[in-house]
Amino acid sequence: MAALGWLTPRRRSATARSVLAGEAAAEAARKTSQELLPAAEPTVADTPEFPVSGDVRAAAFFDLDNTVMQGAALFHFGRGLYKRNFFQRRELARFAWQQSWFRLAGVEDPEHMQDVRESALSIVKGHRVAELMSIGEEIYDEYMAERIWPGTRALAQAHLDAGQKVWLVTAAPVETATIIAGRLGLTGALGTVAESVSGVYTGRLVGEPLHGPAKAEAVRALAAAEGLDLDRCAAYSDSHNDIPMLSLVGHPYAINPDTKLRKHARERDWRLRDYRTGRKAAKVGIPAAAGVGAIAGGTAAAVAIHRRRR
Questions:
Q1: What is the C-alpha to C-alpha distance for residues 104 and 267, in angstroms, rounded to an integer?
Q2: Would you say residue 196 has pLDDT above 70?
Q3: Which of the residues 19, 87, 158, 247 has the least number of beta carbons within 10 Å of its own beta carbon?
Q4: CA 185, 285, 190, 273: dihedral to nearest 10 degrees?
Q5: Annotated catalytic residue within 46, 55, 65, 269
Q6: CA 207, 210, 213, 218 torsion: positive or negative?
């Protein structure tokens, strides 16, 4: 991805950075959607009340973590990178501390979150995009393929069968999201865009992580570029952080919803689907950490793996 500029919280408002992140995600998604692998996983019957077959001005937008996949994609990606010696022990300790602070504080202090982003991006700085894409394919097979929710996969397939495009929308890196979309036979993915020059990561983001309002901006930008009617589109998510995206479309779905989203959905008569049962619902229903904070979550998991090995 060509450099589009680096904006810190001090230089632009959060809204402006969200717009930039959304537009960058939409641009990346359209460029990569034609390059995805055709292989798709088996469909499990769970037919929704719609979509309308042949409505090409409609599309579907799916959140990834805990909506399409059990757990956070970046958690599994972090496991794979640690296995391949991307991390040093000192880096692991730093990321673990930063992620712990974020979870305990429960707020996104701009200066602290900027430090978290810069630290997380240092992992891939200097690596080639093609290298991370190749590794991402392997990590999907190792850790992610068996964690796809069959019910959500069937909902996505229903849109595809109706002739509509289906996009993932996630705070995970766009490269990771594109791999997952390709393996599931989806149209493409909107994800966090890391700046690269001549195919090498610079260690900076374009705008900010694709989280919360930024997701809504990405969907809005893609819809405009694709000539979609958002009132005829559908969106699916597990998290109250995605209410801005869900509110954009005419057919919002709460999938495996957290408590706040479940309440919001019931108040507005949105459709709900929950594919969890019993203790599993309690374990995987916890929202993933926001934005690139989730990257630190993956490295924190790697710390735990390292400790178990010792």
A1: 30
A2: yes
A3: 247
A4: 60
A5: 65
A6: positive
| Residue given tokens 């994609």 in the structure block | 73
Cα distance between residue 276 and residue 257, in whole Å: 10
Which phi and psi angles does 148 have, rounded to 5°? -75, 130
- Report which of residues 235 and 112 the model is more confident about: 235
- Nearest CA-CA partner of 5 in 237, 215, 179, 204: 204
Residues 80-130 have pLDDT tens digits of 888 888 876 666 565 555 555 544 543 445 555 455 556 667 788 899 999
Mean pLDDT along residues 215-238: 96
pLDDT value, residue 80 = 84
Asked if 230 contacts 244 with a C-beta cutoff of 8 angstroms, the reply is no
Buried b (16+ CB within 10 A) or exposed e, 51-62: beeebeebbbbb
- Starting at the earlier edge strand, list the strands of the sheet with 251-255: 188-192, 165-173, 59-63, 234-237, 251-255, 271-273
DSSP 52: P
Give, as one character, the DSSP assignment of residue 93: H
Ranking 35-49, 58-72, 82-96, 244-258 by mean pLDDT, the lowest is: 35-49
Q: pTM for this one?
A: 0.72
- Tell me 42's DSSP state: P
Active site residue 65: yes
Mean pLDDT of 25-47: 53
pLDDT on residue 165: 96
Amino acid in position 49: E
Q: Which pairs from 200-204 meet CB under 8 Å and 24+ separation?
A: 200/126, 200/127, 200/128, 200/129, 201/121, 201/124, 201/125, 201/126, 201/127, 201/128, 201/129, 201/132, 202/3, 202/125, 203/118, 203/121, 203/122, 203/124, 203/125, 203/126, 204/6, 204/121
Rounded to 5 degrees, φ, ψ at 143 are: -125, -25
